[in-house]
Amino acid sequence: MAINTLPPLTPDAPLTEAQVDFPDNFLLIALCGEYDRNLAEIEKKLSVQILRRGNHLVAMGEKASADQAISLLKSLYSRLEAGREVGLADIDRELRMFAPEPTRPSRDGNQFEMFGSGPVEIKTRKKMIEPRTEAQKAYVRSLFANELAFGIGPAGTGKTYLAVAVGVSMFIEGHVDRIILSRPAVEAGEKLGYLPGDMKDKVDPYMQPLYDALNDFLPAKQLQKMYEEKRIEIAPLAFMRGRTLANAFVVLDEAQNATTMQMKMFLTRLGEGSRMVITGDRTQVDLPRGMPSGLADAERILDTVEGVSFNYFSAKDVVRHPLVAAIIEAYEAKG
Q: Per the confidence metrics, is the pTM higher than 0.85?
């Protein structure tokens, strides 16, 4: 069972009871978690007590908290019914979703046509990718609907991961002929010195997050063949000059570290039949002091350009360890 003592209530808060019935015992066991750790986490976060009575879960506490606990349990149970797992990170993310905050919406009138109001899933060779927050779902819809899309927000919100997943999906389905991934080769606050090896050896450390994402979506043999056939290219931003990128899915990662001229150069590489995604975090600029970020300039300059989509993420969209969201929120509060 979960915790057996009621949490402290505010002085005059009435104690209420809310309950819900879950018919599938196996899913109910998964919902509660090993040694009821999922229930214990919800109790701790919402200051409620959760009791299990057969197939019923009862939340006791202040009315708003008890109702929220039941809503959360229903949402998590729906994930289990869809064949997905539920862990502490899912609980943390769902709780953050209950706290609405103003966000700048994507300016894209038809971004919801591809998926409608149903679930958003991205098919790759190795697994199905599921955007988990509303902002992530809107972002994926936008990537499929727009030829040029921006994903802007803090680390851990899935900006690059989802963009690469969409690129792999569009390649598999024959919508594009190749995938091109790029990043500015800018060191994060420290000088690494001269790296040994040929050009590939020198730039690979900067590109590793892109390799990691591709390895999640494509089998190793197929991935190696695509590299050899130039169906997948991973290159520093500086290598894009002079190219026209046609029939390709193009991703520029860490765009906050592109200069204004580099950003303009990259954006004008867009060719016929291509999609382009720009991702970045405005709080992690590693450019020399006084040099403006090309991402910030693009956001300002392209603000009214029709057909360009901007999608924004916040700490509640973080899908890494729950502590990452807390760290981001702490920095934002003290910034």
A: no
